[in-house]
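Chain X:
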Amino acid sequence: MRTNNRSSQGSLRDRFKFLRMREEAGITMGDETNSDGSPSTAPPILHARSSSRIGSPTGLSDDEPGSPPALQKQPTINPKLAPGTASGFAAGPAGDAAEPVDWDLWQSVVNEGPAAIARTSSEELNRAIANGIPQVIRGVIWQVLAQSKNEELEIMYRELVARGTDKEQMSVKPANLSNGQTSGNGKESVASSSSSVHSDYSSPATTTTSTNAPLPSPSVTSDSSEDPAKAQARIAAERKQSVAAISKLEKVIKRDLGARTSYSKYVMAAGLQDGLFGICKAYALYDDAVGYAQGMNFIAMPLLFNMPEEEAFSLFVTLMNKYHLRDLFVHDMAGLHLHLYQFERLLEDFEPALYCHLRRREVKPQLYATQWFLTLFAYRFPLQLVLRIYDLILSEGLESAILKFGIVLMQKNAEALLGMKDMSTLTTFLKERLFDVYIDKAPSANSILENGFFGSTAGVDKEVYRADVLVRDATSVKVTPEMLKQYTAEWKEQQRIEKDRETELHGLKDKVTSLEHKVRSLEHRTEQSDMEHVQVASELIKTKVENENFAEENEILRTKVEELQKIVDTQPAEVEARLKNEMETVMQKNIVVHNENRNLEESMAEMEKELVAVKMQWATVSP
């Protein structure tokens, strides 16, 4: 990893040396080529000679291999181009000469790093960045300031761009034929190391490789016990699903490119659409938690104007992670809401009258400042200003730079905004005419050249802007880290209170729902009670009727009982007399029976005597 970083840093140093030598020697290049004669990967540049700012962004190019550069090569002037365009510079008005480039300072920044220079020459470095990074070395300096140069990310970029295309299939098939291995192992190592490029800001979405690696061959992923035919079918289905998802993503990205971007008027943009598409697609696959958002193309295009697309992708990843631009695109967009709150608090502190004026008319920062943060002012505003804003963002950080530019624009337009009373007028002005205050009424030759450097289908931008004044004004705004920390703490406290309120509200809603269920249950029980009451009343009436019937029957029975009682009262004497007669009859019969029994007993005694006598006779007779 350290070897790759050193080689990347060395590549930037070599490129800077080449660009410096070319600029100091007064060489102007045409279409750039690599040392081997092949076309350069850097975007095509419309060249102009200037002693300070304008030239090729980053591309390393030579004349024919082995031949020294032509030191006296003169630029070709096209008389049909409007004054101020890159090749029409000679036709532009005369003006103040540009400030000389401090090549030694920028050389030290590239060789030693911005942190080392900031410790020894902080004011000098800040002043140089505020004056504008020379266009010829802007791409190199951007990468040095952000420390974004990463060869592994550049390799990964090419692999991600090829995802879902014929190139990926061609790279996977030969790997499948050799020892049953795929190129996924190599890609895994790339993704693994890329996640550690900036361990302080890497995220789970950028460290996983399961979604970024191509589908492996059946020999690698299928279980040994799985049927090969089923495994092949499963992998084919997964690959088809992945290709379909990538195809859908590509359609969404292509729909947002082209004439829909604010850069379509520039000649250079016509040759960078493929690179812009590649960066948007590659990052959507690289960070699936964020995916693709419309503002990304505005952020990536200024990078492509200044460096090859592989390096632009690496810098784009750095912006998203190290500079916390990613927080603006995640699902809840917490970073965007934080920056909008910080901007509103700064506006309240620096311009309280304007803050109250906009607040009374319900013109909140969400209506006009959202695109500032999501596109870094690139969605509508002039390119020459956007590049200067990028200079400050990459040197000071996203949060501080964007807030400074936003506040200074509001300050410079405060008088005009205070004179507007209509909400729609205020919103339109804030979205479209905020930079008009920096229009240069009498532009110098150098400012015209800088404005028209990238070329335009209509010549140049309609207006030339005082970019230096804007940057100086922005850097003069005193936005301290302590202020931002305080606003961040306030916002977090508000979020906590709001979250607690939402939690409480959710709890109250749950209670209301529970009470509603209880009310419905009580209503149902009341209905049941009413029905039971009706039933009880009906039964009560029925019981009363039955009781009346029972009363009548009871009266009848009582009469019968009285009659029976009378009968019972008259019968004892009759029963006693009858019983006496019967007892006398029984006693007489008993006497008769007793007499008969006595006679029988006497007869039995005589018979026993006769039996004894017979037995004795028998005994005497028998021998």
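Chain Y:
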Amino acid sequence: MSVSDINGVVRSANATEYGLAAGVFTQDINKALQLSDRLLAGTLFINTYNKTDVAAPFGGYKQSGFGKDLGQLVVVVLVVVVVVVVVVVAAAVVVVVVVVVVVVVIVVVVVVVVVVVVAAAAVVIITLKSLTE
């Protein structure tokens, strides 16, 4: 496609829902470099298309950006996962602390009840002993 309006080309190319790759064919390397700054594409090919090393990182913009190597969505997902894990661990720690506190309170109540019962029994025994003398 031969185009004289570079701004129209950029608007048209960037108006798509996707942005995985773009190709520019030109004899003017300066135009290609200017376009590379303005096109929303993960990979920009100049005077060729789809010539990549499969080991090279890739990704795109907009709907093509999902799963982009170290892309913003991946970082957001990782942050959310870390936050969820921290919250779950914190909740588990809180539950354990609450259970320990409840068990300690129960043990203290049981000890107090036993002491009161033993003291009451001692009073009864002393009272009965003094009555029988």
